[in-house]
Amino acid sequence: MTVLDSTTALYAALKFVPEGGRMTVYTRDSRRARTNVVAELRKEPGGGWDDWQVLRRPETADASLLPDTWPEENPAIISCRTLADSLAENPDLWAEVED
Fold first, then answer.
1. Is residue 77 exposed (0-12), middle (13-18) or buried (19+ Cβ within 10 Å)?
2. Which of 73, 99, 95, 71 is nearest to 83 (CA)?
3. Residues 72-94: what's their mean pLDDT?
4. What is the model's pLDDT at position 24?
């Protein structure tokens, strides 16, 4: 049985973004940061895991809003599940996907 809620809907939508697709995550509450950009991401090409590479994170961005799942990777990786959970649980976050 699959439970459908906002998190599973986001997870499913993220899985349909093609490999190499890009996304910019923003926050409505930039607080002391100079930008409302949290991170620029790219869906991992050729990985088959639907994870997202962190291409750029502004120095003043709050990294805790969108935590890396595997920070030791280069570039750092955010799993599809972590990304969906972060977007669903924080009403101040929103994203634009380049298609």
1. buried
2. 95
3. 92
4. 96
* CA–CA dist 44, 90 (Å, integer): 24
Instruction: Name, in order, each residue with C-beta under 8 angstroms of 45's C-beta and a sequence gap of 6 or more.
Output: 19, 20
Do 64 and 92 contact (CB within 8 A), yes or no? Answer: no
Cβ atoms of 22 and 97 within 8 Å: the answer is: yes
98, pLDDT greater than 80: yes
pLDDT in tens, 29-72: 766 666 789 999 999 987 667 899 999 998 888 888 899 999 99
Say how far residue 20 (Cα) sits from the centre of its chain: 14
| The two three-digit tokens of residue 97, written as one number | 């996907």
The DSSP letter of residue 91 is T
Provide the 3-class DSSP secondary structure of residue 18: coil
Tell me: pLDDT of 89 over 80: yes
